[in-house]
Amino acid sequence: MAGSRYQYVKKFELPDPILPGTFMVLRIDGHAFHRLSEVHKFAKPNDERALQLMDHAARDVMNEYKDIVLAFGESDEYSFLFRKSTALYNRRQAKIVTTLTSLFTSSYVFNWSRYLPDTPLEYPPSFDGRIVVYPSQKEIRDYFSWRQADTHINNLYNTIFWALVQQGGETTTQAHAILRGTVSGTKNEMLHSRFGINYNTIPARYRKGSVLVQERVCSLCSWIFELPPASSDDLASTAGETPGTPQQPEQAPSGSSKQKASKKAHALTRIELHHCDIIGDEFWDQRPYLLAE
Ligand code: GTP
Ligand code: MG
Fold first, then answer.
1. For residue range 201-236, what is the model confidence (pLDDT) as tens digits?
2. Any idea what the CATH number is for the domain that residue 110 is in?
3. Nearest CA, atom 24, ligand 1
4. Is residue 236 part of a domain?
5. 127 near 108, Cβ under 8 Å?
6. By percentage, how much of the chain surpasses pLDDT 90?
7. Residue 37: CB within 6 Å of ligand 1?
């Protein structure tokens, strides 16, 4: 009702732009997942089904928002890195946080029965979300190193803790007491000597977390569509696959003149899941575009 005497209240809605020319990281974290994991009897210390469900929700977010170039997940959290120059929703903070957190949550619920078919969802889970802005590549590298180091620290602790309880017969209080003040070398040694577990043989998913990357696959393409010159929006033009069905850019349907096959190298991407190291240089050196404009 334009021009009504009530309309002035609209002026109280102040803009909340994120600083241009900075990197944005959105971190989504499960709310009270200690309870959710107990109620739904998640395996301890890691429930692969629940972690795969998190990966699925994160992939759905990346499929919808092509400006996300990288995501890292562990436990009940996922961090999303946007390309530096993203203009998503005019960089309006609340719009980005709420819309993406909402999409992540609805995907988590929507796909729950696919990953935990024998475990009915007892109540609606929720996630919080926040955006942190970083000025340079250094902080982005350090941010993701921080999250992956956290994954390792938590997983090592949880692995030995639950081994002490489930296999060693200790109470949870005793297990906490045994581990209090121990360094990682001691935990590794205890895992090996008491339980015969070599920490390095534990699945990489648990040790390294999940790394979802908009991988550039143009070097793999021999026959692809003729496309306009790659803009940043084009970069994710093939990223709509579902898990287990990577897109095949080389399979060009025939019929249209615009679909004339060509050998031009275009920046096609697809989302790939890794459980690899992202603290060292190798991961980033192989993918300089992640931290480009
Ligand atoms: P808030 O985030 O502050 O709301 O609390 P939270 O209860 O979600 O705890 P936090 O995010 O710090 O940690 C996540 C919790 O989720 C862990 O402490 C576990 O209790 C639970 N969790 C996450 N992944 C798994 C899993 O694979 N197995 C089990 N058993 N629990 C998990
Ligand atoms: Mg949480």
1. 999 999 999 999 999 886 555 444 444 444 333 333
2. 3.30.70.3000
3. 75
4. no
5. yes
6. 80
7. yes
- Which residue's CA lies nearest to atom 26 of ligand 1? 46
* 289 CA to centre of ligand 2 in angstroms: 31
Task: Return the half-sphere exposure (C-beta side, CA atoms, 13 A cut-off) of residue 271.
Answer: 31
The strand pairing partners of 224, in sequence order, are 262
Q: Is residue 104 part of a domain?
A: yes
pLDDT given at position 259 = 47
Within a domain: residue 235?
no
What Cα–Cα distance (Å) separates residue 291 from each residue in 18, 69, 94, 198, 217?
18, 9, 24, 35, 17
For residue range 236-263, list pLDDT tens digits in order.
333 333 333 333 333 333 444 444 444 4
Backbone angles phi and psi of 81, in degrees to 5: -105, 125
State mean pLDDT over 126-146: 98
Whether pLDDT at 98 is above 70: yes
**SS3 per residue for 45-112:** CCCHHHHHHHHHHHHHHHHHCCCEEEEEEECCEEEEEECCCCCHHHHEHHHHHHHHHHHHHHHHHHCH
pLDDT at 225: 44
For residue 17, the 8-state DSSP code is: B
Domain that holds residue 80: 19-140+204-214
For residue 125 and ligand 1, the question of a CB distance below 6 A is answered with no
Average confidence (pLDDT) over 155-170: 96
Domain presence at residue 190: no
Ligand 1 near 158 CB (within 6 A): no
Overall domain count for the chain: 1
